[in-house]
Amino acid sequence: MSVDAISSRTNEQRALISRKAAELFARKGYAATSMNEIAEASHLSKPGLYHHFKDKAEVLFHIADGHVSRLADIVTGVEALGLAPERRLPELIEVFMLEYAEAQNEHRVLTEDVRFLDADAQACVVEKERTVVRVFADAVAAARPDLDGTQLPKVLTMFLFGMLNWMFTWFQPNGHLTHDDLAPIATQLFLHGIFGVEVQRRPVALR
Fold this sequence. Notes:
Blueprint: H1 3-28, H2 35-41, H3 46-52, H4 56-80, H5 85-102, H6 104-112, H7 119-143, H8 152-165, H9 179-192
Helix pairs in contact: 1-2, 1-4, 1-6, 4-5, 4-6, 4-7, 5-7, 5-9, 7-8
């Protein structure tokens, strides 16, 4: 087996372990989850798990850093498109929501469990979070240039994250609404308030 093939297989195994661990951390909490449970969920022996990760904290860092790195790449990618101010913020909200749809467990871990990491690991994750916040704050400021020189773009950005980041506490993705449905609602609510939310009527299937 070639070096590239071995490396690819190792990355795939680490990704699988991370997904299974994120499910456990999201359901049980980081502190209540053991390496034995992660190994069992990943269909590995405990020595096999330790071959990929030296301890539970490294698993946690791999999940949190991987998720926030993807978010940072996504938002800086939108920023690089050079969209007009009225399009940039809606696009950021939409791509953010779509990423959340695919990584609800990872997002819960990022939101709730980073505090268990050591100071250096936390700093690494927080620095990438700051990149995400900065891109959103710049988009808010571009949409409202009259707020230039005030703290309001950052404050409004944190209000927006408060709305988006805690969806996992109440949203049921197997219900009547999907993340695709909620993305324009979140955009309209943030930009125009409750009276700006448009009601989308679903077509009734004919029998």
